[in-house]
Design a protein that fits this description.
By secondary structure, the chain is of the alpha+beta class. It folds into 2 domains: about 35 residues; about 90 residues, Nuclear Transport Factor 2, Chain: A, CATH 3.10.450. About 35% of the residues lie in helices and about 35% in strands. The protein contains 3 helices and 6 strands; from the N terminus they run αααββββββ. Strands 1, 2, 3, 4, 5 and 6 form a 6-stranded antiparallel beta sheet that branches. The protein is elongated and about 75 Å long. About 15% of the residues are buried.
């Protein structure tokens, strides 16, 4: 039996490596897409885009520039969600921080939403805070 040459084995290794990396990138993209289409994520962006102060600071249109799914601070367990998302407007870039909670009656509720501008990294603008309706009850 004749073994393949080193050149042939190297080609196979390159093809397998490319296929593996492509698969991982595709799976990561699908996970990010599912998160972006989730109710809590869309609600947070809706609140940010409708906030006059945020719009005046960032400029329109406000775009999602991504998030790190490998960051342990970005998580969703089905009942609570916490994310740090890079955002960009026509005037400025920044990060949106939000936390959401799921209730059986109302679905996903954004508890807190903050905006940090790239030009002012030591300051966070509070866009939304918990309301009486979104705060957990002690019953």
């Amino acid at each position: 039996m004749r073994f393949p040459s080193n050149k042939t084995l190297a080609k196979y290794a390159v093809y397998i490596g490319i296929a593996g990396i492509s698969s991982v990138m595709y799976m990561r993209w699908k996970i990010e897409e599912r998160i972006r289409n989730a109710e809590y994520f869309r609600s947070a962006f809706k609140i940010l885009r409708q906030h006059r102060g945020a719009v005046s600071l960032l400029g329109e249109p406000i775009k999602d520039m991504g998030f790190d799914i490998g960051d342990s601070n970005n998580s969703c367990d089905g009942q609570t969600a916490n994310f740090e998302v890079s955002v960009k407007g026509s005037k400025e870039r920044g990060k949106m921080f939000f936390s959401a909670m799921r209730s059986d009656e109302a679905g996903w509720i954004i508890n807190r939403l903050e905006l940090e501008l790239k030009s002012q990294p030591d300051k966070r603008f509070i866009i939304q805070t918990p309301t009486e309706n979104s705060a957990p009850s002690n019953e």
